[in-house]
């Protein structure tokens, strides 16, 4: 069964850091690009960041550029999101999602259940 | 602020047909980029519903159909059922932005 399981969320103070992880199983992880998408409480979906199969192509939403870093470890079938200088507006449910393509970004065919990040003092 | 605009809500009686629009511009849908649709049931992760404008993944009922024309795309639900009452999002690419993904504003479908 194809599965994505996020972890690492929690309550964090503003300006602090948090690292999210996504464990993939049931498919050949290094054959696909991967993404982080977030959803603030009661709001719509917001694309956060994407990484190609070999980490050669990476993209960030303007709202997180310079603060968040996406990475992957294909040997561990894992995706990561290092979040620094967190702000209240980063409070959201963070989803890990798999693309159907490897080197380019097209659409997301598998999603995890998400991990909640709350930024508050 | 999304560049893909959807109506906040649409509604219909059971058995009826409803459509959800996704309006973009010449830098996204109008530029020929494909549109994809996701369904998000309450308290769950989004699920791919339509890809490549009009294709259904395995397991998605044929009551759901997608189309694209000009700078807009549409998701149609025919034979509306109570279980279809949830949120729907379109997604595409925008060449004017420095990001590969843009999601629509989202539409809540209500079954009357």
Structure description:
- The complex is a heterodimer of chains A (about 120) and B (about 110).
- Chain A has about 120 residues and is mostly beta strands.
- Chain A is built from no helices and 11 strands.
- Chain A is globular, with a radius of gyration of 13 Å.
- The model of chain A has no long low-confidence stretch (mean pLDDT about 95).
- Chain B has about 110 residues and is mostly beta strands.
- Chain B contains no helices and 9 strands.
- In chain B, strands 1, 3, 4, 7, 8 and 9 form a 6-stranded mixed sheet that branches. A 3-stranded antiparallel sheet of chain B has the order 2-6-5, with no helix packed on it.
- In chain B, a hairpin with a 2-residue loop joins strand 5 and strand 6 (about 70-75).
- Chain B is globular and about 40 Å long.
- The mean pLDDT of chain B is about 95.
- The interface of A and B includes residues 47, 60 and 107 of A.
Topology:
The complex is a heterodimer of chains A (121) and B (112).
Chain A: E1 3-7, E2 10-12, E3 18-25, E4 34-39, E5 45-51, E6 58-60, E7 68-73, E8 78-83, E9 92-99, E10 108-111, E11 115-119
Parallel strand pairs in A: 2-11
Antiparallel strand pairs in A: 1-3, 3-8, 4-5, 4-9, 5-6, 7-8, 9-10, 9-11
Chain B: E1 9-12, E2 18-23, E3 36-40, E4 47-50, E5 64-69, E6 72-77, E7 87-92, E8 102-103, E9 107-111
Parallel strand pairs in B: 1-9
Antiparallel strand pairs in B: 2-6, 3-4, 3-7, 5-6, 7-8, 7-9
